UniProtKB/TrEMBL annotation:
InterPro entries: Aldolase_TIM (IPR013785), Alpha-glycosidase_related (IPR050985), GH (IPR017853), Glyco_hydro_36 (IPR002252). It holds the Pfam family Melibiase. GO terms for molecular function: alpha-galactosidase activity. One of its GO terms (biological process) is carbohydrate catabolic process. Keywords: Glycosidase, Hydrolase. The keyword ATP-binding does not apply. This is Alpha-galactosidase. CDD domains: GH36 (cd14791). The keyword Hydrolase applies.
Length: 677
């Protein structure tokens, strides 16, 4: 329910949660001078729309009931019209801002809340926090460069959180939750800020009292785009909904976003083989042909719908149609040979990056995104590509750059025959800079580049996003990486410190995101949790960690992709790869998403069985049992079993009432119970 109070502020009320005194605000610049329209009241009829105005802008807030399945809430939209006679540069438009005592009613207050914080792109951290925790940006530049939006930094202060695109609050005492998520991402990048004072916290505040909300705001970033006199622009829509099931609220938001942007969701996730995690940049044509032979031999019954040549085929970053000496037959001939086996051919590119020494950068310096000083914007440093120089970025608001991207994709997909394209490091196109078209936001620039690739590749091509901000990609990509890179190692304490436990190359962090972003799957795209490593050579993963990887990927029903030398994988490990495929195909729910930073319980509902996964994240052997009880069990419609079968061992385990003793689990191990329907 939404209404305007006597004070002219908007109130959002629900059965579980309510927001009071929520007011929009817009920051902007006129002739270089910063200004803000921050009304203390809105005018309009009780059911809206509501307006406020100053000498330069008029804002209009409109509301409508949410149409997402299973979600009872309100969708807000803010329109901004330039009413003065001079152009305005829009910075931020906040649709909802509240705080102080009574700003948000949910359960017993912040001391009992958990907050879901979503990161900016594919590799960014996503997990639940409690309000006595602090969340800050990683300190290592290599992680910061590739996981953070430089325009939305976070501060390491207890109780202060910034979530990209969506957040949800859950009352850990069971009263329900609240979701605030933008139902659109192709127009603006967006953030939700939440701050609260809890006992032991250290937030600056005007005496809000312990356990009270300090700030809650939801903001679209317009990035200083120019809006001419008389023109109107709108924010992305914002869904505000409450209910008894916080995980269901996130699922409902994802369904609403997918519907709003016409998400491309394959009937089944694409499965295949990728060269990167065994051969890395040293991959050769011979390596790929060996993989093809293994796929037709020892692994003939393992579903490998495509074979992908990852990073290492190109002459330079940006010169995607110039092949290096390691592929003497040429990429078109290799694609034809892959397709002759009945599989699709896949290829890796980083479409919006260019190496300073590439032919593209040298021939077209005007194509580069530049900063305020006129210098090329750089995205990252990768010593594999160029030991001395950082990678530069294409300006995707230029028509000639768009034409170039479209032609590259057309050549790769239609002329050469690579129908699966992995698009990597895509965040580069959304970095801050001075663009050819000053009227486009960073999200619109990125979307223009993605749309160009889609047009060139064709509607039937499979596009896999990677290193990509989530919102602008919905409706373009068929699959999306939702975590960092896996590695042939779990990732110990030193790795956690170096990566600030947020990114880098780490199987542990990758699998955490696999669970914490599982609700995106099937609504926005097919989730890509990264490759399943089952090999015994060139790896430090234990058998338990391999099982963990297999279970996390299988139970969440994401893409199953191998990157091993399949001709060297022992038969019992190939069985694990087959089991990963066997476990997939269900409707997944991470039931304890809000219980802590690392979810432990995943339930996957299939046509003939329910799979119950219990993950052990600890670094020491631990006796573990599960209780087949609670609201998540009640929704499965299953009879109480007297015994269950464990998927990895085939062992039959007795059920004592509702409890199953799983024995002692090794560090980073898992058990998966099969429950017949």
């Amino acid at each position: 329910m939404i209404a305007v109070g006597r004070d002219g502020a908007v109130d959002l009320g629900g059965e579980v949660a309510s927001l009071r005194a929520t007011l929009p605000r817009v920051t902007y610049r006129v002739a270089g001078r910063p200004a803000a329209l921050a009304p203390t009241r809105l005018d309009g009829p009780p059911d809206g729309p509501w307006t406020a105005e100053d000498a330069h802008l008029r804002i209009t807030l409109a509301a409508r009931p949410a149409a997402a399945p299973g979600v009872d809430g309100t969708v807000l939209r803010l329109s901004v019209t330039v009413v003065g006679d001079r152009p305005v540069r829009l910075d931020d438009a906040t649709l909802l801002a509240t705080g102080g005592p009574g700003g948000l009613r949910l359960g017993a207050g912040p001391a009992s809340w958990s907050l879901y914080r979503n990161g900016w792109n594919s590799w960014s951290n996503a997990r639940a926090f409690t309000f006595d925790e602090a969340d800050g940006d990683p300190w290592l530049f290599a992680i910061a460069d590739t996981t953070l939006d430089p325009e939305t930094p976070r501060r390491r202060e207890p109780g202060r959180f910034r979530s990209e695109l969506v957040t949800a609050l859950a009352d850990r005492e069971g009263s329900g939750g609240l979701v605030l998520g933008f139902v659109g991402g192709a127009r603006c990048l967006s953030v939700v800020d939440v701050a609260a004072e809890v006992p032991g916290g250290a937030l600056p505040h005007d005496d809000p009292g312990p356990g009270r909300l300090v700030e809650l705001s939801a903001t679209c970033r317009f990035d200083g785009t120019t809006v001419d006199p008389g023109a109107t622009t709108t924010t992305e829509d914002l869904l505000v909904a409450d209910g008894p099931d916080p995980v269901g609220l996130l699922e409902g938001w994802a369904a609403a976003l997918g519907a709003a942007q016409s998400a491309r969701v394959p009937a089944r996730p694409p499965h295949g083989w990728c060269s990167w995690y065994y051969h890395y940049a040293k991959v050769t044509e011979a390596d790929v042909r060996r993989a093809l032979a293994a796929a037709d031999g020892v692994a003939a019954d393992v579903p490998l719908g495509y074979v992908m040549v990852d990073d290492g085929h190109q002459q330079a970053i940006g010169d995607w149609l110039a092949t290096n000496h390691k592929f003497p037959s040429g990429m078109a001939a290799l694609a034809a040979d892959i397709r002759a086996t009945g599989r699709d051919a896949g290829i890796w590119i980083a479409p919006f990056l260019v190496d300073p020494d590439s032919d593209v950068a040298r021939a077209h310096p005007d194509w580069l995104l530049r900063d305020e000083a006129g210098e090329p914007v750089t995205a990252l440093w990768n010593q594999i590509w160029n030991l001395r120089k950082r990678q530069q970025v294409l300006d995707c608001t230029r028509p000639d750059v768009v034409a170039h991207l479209e032609e590259v994709a057309r050549t790769l997909a239609r002329d050469w025959g690579y129908r699966v394209l992995k698009l990597d490091f895509c965040f580069a196109a959304a970095l801050p800079g001075v663009r050819h078209d000053p009227g486009r936001t960073r999200a619109q620039a990125l979307r223009a580049g993605l749309d160009a690739v889609r047009r060139g590749a064709g509607d039937d091509a499979v596009l896999i996003g990677c290193g990509l901000p989530l919102g602008p990609a919905v409706g373009v990509v068929d699959a999306m990486r939702i975590g960092t890179d896996v590695a042939p190692a779990w990732g110990g304490k030193v790795t956690r410190w170096a990566f600030s436990d947020q990114g880098g190359i780490s199987t542990r962090i990758a699998m955490r995101n696999t669970l914490t972003r599982a609700f995106l799957h099937g609504h926005l795209w097919s989730n890509d949790p990264d490759c399943v490593m089952v090999r015994t050579d060139r790896t430090r993963l234990t058998e338990a960690e391999v099982r963990f990887l297999v279970a996390a990927v299988g139970l969440t029903d994401g893409m199953v992709v191998s990157s091993d030398r399949l001709d060297k994988v022992p038969p019992e490990r190939l069985d694990l790869l087959r089991l990963c495929h066997e476990l997939s195909g269900g409707r997944c729910r991470v039931v304890d998403l809000f219980a802590g930073p690392e979810p432990e319980t995943v339930v996957s509902v299939k046509a003939d069985e329910v799979l119950w996964g219990r993950f052990h994240w600890g670094d020491a052997p631990t006796a573990v049992s599960v209780d087949l009880d609670g609201p998540h069990w009640d929704g499965l419609g299953l009879a109480r079993p007297t015994q269950v079968v464990e998927a990895f061992t085939g062992a039959t385990l007795p059920v004592d009432g509702t409890r199953v003793d799983l024995g002692v689990l090794d560090p980073h191990d898992v058990r998966v119970l099969r429950l017949p329907r």
